[in-house]
Write a sequence for this structure.
């Protein structure tokens, strides 16, 4: 301690000089528009690179949990396959002509990794490392292994920006799985774990623990993708319920995502456009 | 130089700077700053830390007047910091007595060396602080040189009028 004080006393001139220069520099950056713009340009590119490195390192520490999740998901998928195989055996005995070599699928899944995200603002965004070169387009659905994440909002060559469920600008059509009533899911900008399902008629029976899934009414999300579970039910207006939904996706922990392409989207939209004329 | 004389020089230089030189528009290639002479002629017996604070607040004052928050302060703090070392390097005991003593500054040679280095350093910080990037470095360099030459010219003018020791 004595040595430190001695050192400070010995170099107090230089220390005062550095402090004053630092003060001047912060005054320059804080009070001059031009200098502030230049400085924030430098910091933005610096922290952009830094956050990308941190994400890379951070991913390693979550490998274990990510692995567990993948294994769990694999198991469910394998079970599905087994079920389908069994079903196939039953059906295909005399309907083999129905099964073609190349099956046309409704939805194509693509994996992507998250490079940047936010969860503490009212308008949060997620950036992923796939872009137009990987076939990502606007308004594609994005899910994690746990459930729905959001919608692709903007695409560049190698990156895409996602409007997640925890952005007050996004509305997603959600459905109570057990009885099929649907409403619109919108976040209130408060807690990243909860969202609200509105426009459900008051007579509908909804209880805590019920599953909320996508309705499949829009051309974006496949039917029955998990959104979350009912946390509590409130009757705010006279005719409609507001259902607090605990989101299945933990936005603080996602890193691996699926982008889902609806292969028949264009066809459906064209048909609907013709019908509207 | 006695304290009263110093205060008078201080006020005159500040007045010249704020009323005349800050209103002269010579493109943006030339900034004329005569007020830094105040730091050069500060009494030698002052403590180094005092000189630093004096330099900082003098720069800040000019900043407030010119709406260039922090830029002048950074530059004046630096020349206040190098002042003791520079005096040690460029002058001998007799001349140091000169700057603090009863007589006016007499030896032109060392005084010129002293203000040349200080003013150049001052303008490097000032212009870089204003440009705030190293793009167009040649233009920045040109501005530094022009401003240094112009400032030194006016400082010398003041020196010959008010500070130079009259021969008997």
């Amino acid at each position: 301690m004595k040595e430190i004080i001695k050192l400070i006393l010995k170099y107090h001139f230089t220390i005062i000089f550095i402090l004053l220069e630092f003060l001047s520099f912060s005054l320059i950056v804080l009070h001059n528009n031009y200098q502030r713009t230049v400085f924030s340009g430098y910091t933005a590119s610096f922290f952009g690179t830094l956050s990308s490195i941190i994400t890379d390192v951070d991913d390693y520490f979550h490998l274990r949990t990510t692995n567990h999740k993948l294994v769990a998901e694999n198991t469910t998928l394998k079970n599905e396959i087994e079920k389908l195989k069994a079903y196939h055996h039953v059906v295909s005995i005399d309907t083999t002509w129905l099964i073609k070599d190349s099956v046309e699928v409704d939805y194509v899944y693509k994996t992507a990794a998250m490079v940047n995200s936010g969860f503490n603002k009212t308008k949060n965004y997620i950036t992923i490392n796939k872009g137009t070169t990987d076939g990502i387009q606007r308004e594609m659905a994005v899910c994690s292994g746990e459930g729905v994440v959001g919608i692709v909002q903007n695409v560049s060559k190698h990156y895409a920006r996602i409007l997640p469920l925890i952005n007050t600008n996004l509305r997603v059509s959600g459905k109570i799985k057990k009885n099929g009533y649907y409403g619109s899911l919108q976040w209130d900008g408060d807690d990243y774990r909860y969202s609200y399902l509105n426009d459900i008629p008051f007579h509908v029976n909804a209880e805590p623990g019920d599953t909320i899934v996508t309705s499949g009414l829009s051309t974006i999300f496949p039917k029955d993708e998990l959104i979350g579970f009912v946390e509590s039910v409130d009757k705010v207006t006279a005719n409609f319920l507001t259902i607090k939904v605990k989101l299945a996706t933990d936005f603080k922990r996602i890193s691996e995502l699926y982008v889902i392409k609806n292969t028949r989207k264009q066809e459906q939209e064209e048909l609907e456009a013709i019908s509207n004329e | 130089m006695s304290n009263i004389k110093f205060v008078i020089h201080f006020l005159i230089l500040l007045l010249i700077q704020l009323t005349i030189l800050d209103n002269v528009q010579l493109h943006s290639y030339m900034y004329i700053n005569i007020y830094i002479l105040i730091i050069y002629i500060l009494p030698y017996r002052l403590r180094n830390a005092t000189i630093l604070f004096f330099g900082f607040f003098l720069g800040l004052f000019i900043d407030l007047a010119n709406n260039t928050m922090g830029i002048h302060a950074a530059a004046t703090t630096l020349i206040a910091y190098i002042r003791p070392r520079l005096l040690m390097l460029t002058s001998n005991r007799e001349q140091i007595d000169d700057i603090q003593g009863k007589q006016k500054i007499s030896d032109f040679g060392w005084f010129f060396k002293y203000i040349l280095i200080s003013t150049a350093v001052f303008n490097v910080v000032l212009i870089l602080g204003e440009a705030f990037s190293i793009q167009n470095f040649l233009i920045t360099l040109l501005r530094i040189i022009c401003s240094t030459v112009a400032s030194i010219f006016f400082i010398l003018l003041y020196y010959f009028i008010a500070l130079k020791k009259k021969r008997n």
The interface with chain B takes residues 12-14, 16-17, 20-21, 23-32, 34-35, 38-39 of chain A (CB under 8 Å). Confidence is low (pLDDT under 50) at residues 94-102 of chain A. Helices of chain A lie at 2-10, 12-31, 33-61, 63-91, 265-276. Chain A is about 35% helix and 30% strand.
